[in-house]
Design a protein that fits this description.
Elements lengths: L1 H8 L2 H4 L2 H22 L4 H20 L1
Length: 64
């Protein structure tokens, strides 16, 4: 069992941090968009449209 645990923890997946930056930037963009929608109600509908398009693209990619 120790060999399996050591092999599992030694996988390169646990050490790979390349995708972390992309997720952080995406979260930051989302927070900025929500703040902009709260501060400027005139653009809230266009922000909602953008997020709806992103949602549909992500849903179709997940189904594939």
């Amino acid at each position: 069992m120790k060999k399996v645990t050591k092999a599992f923890l030694g996988l390169k997946i646990w050490k790979d941090k390349h995708g972390q930056d992309l997720i952080e930037y995406a979260l930051m963009a989302g927070f900025v968009a929500v703040a902009a929608g709260a501060l400027m109600p005139n653009i809230a509908s266009s922000i909602s449209t953008v997020f709806s398009k992103i949602n549909s693209v992500m849903a179709s990619a997940a189904a594939s």
